[in-house]
Amino acid sequence: MFPMRVWVAVVFIMLVTTVAAKPRRILLDTDVDLDDVFALLYLLKLNRSEFQLEGVTINANAWTNVGHAVNQVYDILYMMGRDDIAVGMGGEGGILPDGTILPNVGGYLSIIEQGMTTTGGCRYRQAIPIGHRGILDIDTIYGIRKAFLPQGIRKYTPLGQPTAQQVLIDKISAGPITLIVIGVQTNIAIFLMNNPHLKKNVQHIYIMGGAVRSTDPTSCCPKNASFSCIPGQCGDRGNVFTNYEANPYAEFNIFGDPFAAYQVIHSGIPVTLVPLDATNTIPINEEFFNEFEKSQDTYEAQYCFKSLKMAKMARDKLDNQFYTSYFMWDSFASGVAVSSMRNSNKKNKRENEFAHMEYMNITVITSNKPYGISDGSNPFFDGLKVPKFNLKKGGVHSGHVQQGLRDKFCFVKNGKGRCQDGYTAEVDGPDSVKVLVATKAKPNRDVRSKLDKEYFKSFLNVLKQPQHAGRFNFTTQFPYYEEVTYMPDFQNKTLGKPVVFDMDMSVGDFLALFYLLKVDVEVINLKAIIVSPTGWANAATIDVIYDLLHMMGRDDIPVGLGDFFPMNQSDPIFPTAGNCKYVKAIPHGNGIHLKIP
User: Fold this and answer.
1) C-alpha distance across the termini of the chain, in Å
2) Helices (DSSP H) in 186-257: which residue ranges?
3) Distance CA 500, CA 525 (A)
4) Where in the chain is the domain with CATH 3.90.245.10?
5) Dist. CA 597–CA 593, nearest whole Å
6) Residue 407 CB neighbour total at 10 angstroms
7) Which of 398, 472, 546, 551 sits at 20 to 30 Å (Cα–Cα) from 188?
8) By three-state DSSP, how is residue 215 classified?
9) What InterPro entries is this protein classified in (predicted)?
């Protein structure tokens, strides 16, 4: 008979083994950019006895329009057989003037701009190009998305779609969970500010974003360049290429909502940051691209590579700089997070398979010195007796807040811009937070491999492995589908009055288009459609018009996409970016913008 102490030891070991056997629960917050898709698929392919992705929340104020993003996520999850994963986005809640956060704030706006509705400005988001090399390309994944992904059962439905805050509350309330945040921090900040009692369940937050000690390697003049070569953001801390003259310090994910990023990093929850310092050291190179092209064993690998190939073609057409300007941003961050979680029980918390790690004391700059001024740029303080959220007068949030790409405050004659909104700066003192930071991608341990980074090897191996592979794509889901172009025969008809229809893709416009198509062609001959993306719908909704014309047998009607900005609203230096002076009056949520896609 065993002594009591032996039985106690056995029971203890069994309990420890049982606890250790539980997979780590993960929630991914993403803006569904192309590299976010890589990160999502990488996480979905991991061993589910180790890691269990339980929820996806979509960031609504960055690189995609959420109506398109949510349907892409649903179709990806359907392809991967994971309709069990909760997806949250948007919401109609607001923030009262006194700082009270109401339920289900949608995250369509940065916190500094969030009022009681889903209408508002684009103080930070205006730095993101709307058309090519920007939101249009990401909404459509360069035209690949609808042609490749299968059509799942789940779709966005007005008033039936779970909100981001609902999914965050549900999943975090259920027990210990890890957050991987690869977009702007708005959703997570709103959750933490409104649910402080649930912070205890968040074990760790991994963030792709920021720039601590980095130097931007893009837009540099070659060594043999002539004197006429003018470098762009070469050597800057940040990567906001439309904004570097005013703010050379910010990185897109943090710049999208600096106050939100500050709240997350200062939340008291352990944070690991994967900033540009690390991602700048893992550019996609020709060797990786070629090896990826050979690794097409699964549908998910095919989708990623086809999308990447289109991104390469688009960038090479612009300046032939793809291999020096496209990095493994968010997917690399997901790999660093996974490796850190695997090593979390080890004594050396900095041990990571894919990146060199270092503890740093940092903060997020949300306003510019001098603090305590009132110049009309800071809604948290300007005109308020009590600052919003009870922020400290004269504190770090009370300075000038950048108001746009051409904010005069930010420009210094014959020098770099002085605005630092969104800068993840190293600081000492009470405003600093000790954060584990990835500083550099590790080289491949296999010196015989053509891949120079350890993560490159892991990424390709994970995507091509047969375990948890995608079930089908669009063409294998619908094997009898054929691409047919329907061209009507009007040879024996006397065509009516020629008409060109200019539309902004609102619901009423689609009804009008149906009417025009149903009128006898001998009365009205619809010759062309011009689409304006400056109103009630975004540019990617043009796909709905193509589908409608195909359904009506009118593939003969050409469709032209108009300018992305009203007159005099595009940026004079980067015309693909610009202000939202007029379109900001249109609601983002269930009211309008979200329904149109």
Assistant:
1) 71
2) 186-194, 252-255
3) 9
4) 24-366+401-441
5) 8
6) 20
7) 398
8) coil
9) Inosine/uridine_hydrolase_dom (IPR001910), Ribo_hydro-like (IPR036452)
Provide the angle, in degrees to the nearest 10, between the axes of the packed helices 329-342 and 454-464. 90
* Distance between CA atoms of residues 369 and 519, nearest Å: 63
Fold of 24-366+401-441: Inosine-uridine Nucleoside N-ribohydrolase; Chain A (3.90.245)
pTM: 0.92
Class of residue 411 by CB neighbours under 10 A (exposed 0-12, middle 13-18, buried 19+): middle
Integer Cα distance of 246 and 84 in angstroms:
45
Residues 350, 358: contact at Cβ < 8 Å? yes
Cα four-point dihedral sign 570, 574, 575, 580: negative
Q: Calculate the CA dihedral of residues 424, 429, 434, 439 and round it to 10 degrees.
A: 50
Which one-letter DSSP state was computed for residue 368? B
Residues in the chain: 597
User: Structure tokens of 120?
Assistant: 């508002």
d(CA 530, CA 138) in angstroms, rounded, equals 22
Amino acid at 193: M
What is residue 319's predicted lDDT score, i.e. its pLDDT?
Answer: 78
Task: Count CA within 13 A, CB hemisphere, residue 526.
Answer: 23
Among candidates 330, 307, 314, which has minimal Cα distance to 59? 330
Q: Which run of H or E residues covers position 318?
A: helix 299-318
Q: Quick check: 212 pLDDT over 90?
A: yes
Residue 129: strand, helix, or coil:
coil
Edge to edge, what strands does the sheet with 497-503 contain? 497-503, 524-531, 559-561
Tens-digit pLDDT profile for residues 144-184 = 888 999 998 999 888 789 999 999 999 999 999 999 999 99
Question: Which tokens sit at 426?
Answer: 């190293």
Of 31, 164, 156, nearest in space to 91 by CA: 164
Hey, what amino acid is at 371?
Y
The pLDDT-based confidence of 114 (bands split at 50, 70, 90) is very high
Q: Which helix (H) or strand (E) holds 41?
A: helix 34-44
Q: How many whole angstroms separate alpha carbon 453 and alpha carbon 397?
A: 39
Residue 109 burial (10 A CB sphere; 0-12, 13-18, 19+): buried
